[in-house]
Amino acid sequence: MEFFTSYDGTTLAFRTLGDGPPLLCLPGGPGRAAEYLGDLGGLSAHRTLILPDTRGTGASAIPADPATYRVDRLVADVEALRRHLGLDRVDLLGHSAGGSLAMLYAAAHPDRLNSLTLVTPSFAAVGLPSDIGVDEVIAARAAEPWHAEAVAAHRHMTTANSFAEAAPYRLAFEPLMYGRWDDAARAHAAADPAQRALPVSEHYYQGYTPDTGELRRRLGALHRPTLLLAGEVDVWPTAGAAVDAASLFTEVTLAVQPGAGHYPWLDDPQAFTAVLEGFLSAVG
Fold this sequence. Notes:
It contains 13 helices and 8 strands. By secondary structure, it is an alpha/beta fold. The protein has an 8-stranded mixed beta sheet with strand order 1-2-4-3-5-6-7-8, with helices on both faces. Helix 1 crosses helix 2. The longest helix has 15 residues, at about 270-284. It is globular, with a radius of gyration of 18 Å. The mean pLDDT is about 95.
C-alpha cells in the first residue's frame, strides 16, 4: 500500500498491481474500498492497475469535513493522485459510482486524460437514468431459484431513503448484480459490508446539484477515446441505459458483455479483459 497527501491534507491510500502501462481505476459502491476490484479479471497481466481507496474507505484516512465525500469534490483527489504519480495524462477507468466520478474528472480535466473507460457506470452525475428497461431485465431471470426473494429486496432497495435503510435487504438483492450466482459471486457479495464505509455512501451524492447541460456539453466536446461497457443482465445500469448514455460522447465504443451483471470481470474474465485490452491497446 502506498500513500499520498491530497489537496486538503487528507492522507489517501492506493496500491499498484500488475505490469504494463498504468491504468487508474476508480472504485464504486459508492464507498467501497478498491479491494473488491481484484485484478479486474486478469487485466493486471497487461496493465499496471492503480487502485485508490476513496477518502474514508479502506486504508485512506477519514477527512475532517465529511462534505468532501461528495462526488464532485472527489475530482480533486483524483487530480492530486495524478500529480503524485507524475503522469502527464492518464488512462482512467471508473466502475459503478466510480464511473460518475470518472466522467466528472474527464469534464474538469480533459487535457489530463488519455482515454476513458466506464465499466457498468452510474449516470447519476450527468442526470441520466440508469434503470431503463430494468423490469424486463429482472423478469428475464424469473427461472432463477433466488428470483422472488431478490425482486422483493430490490423493491425495498429502490424505495429506501438511505444506504443504511437499504442495508438489511442488500444480501437478498445481490444475485441480481451478478451474471452467475455462484460461489465466486457469493464470496464477492459477502465481502461488501466489511469493505463499505456507509458515511461515504451516504454523502457521495448528498447535496450534489450538477449543471447537467454544461456537463453534457463538456463530455460531448471530449475528443478522447471512450469505452462504455455494460452487462447484458445488469440492473444498474441496464444495457438500455448504456445505449442511451453513449450519445454523450463523441469518440465512444459501446460494448455489452453477454450474460454479465454489474461485475463483468467476475462473470467472464476472458471476455472482459479482451474488450478492455483491445480498446486500450488501440488507444496507445
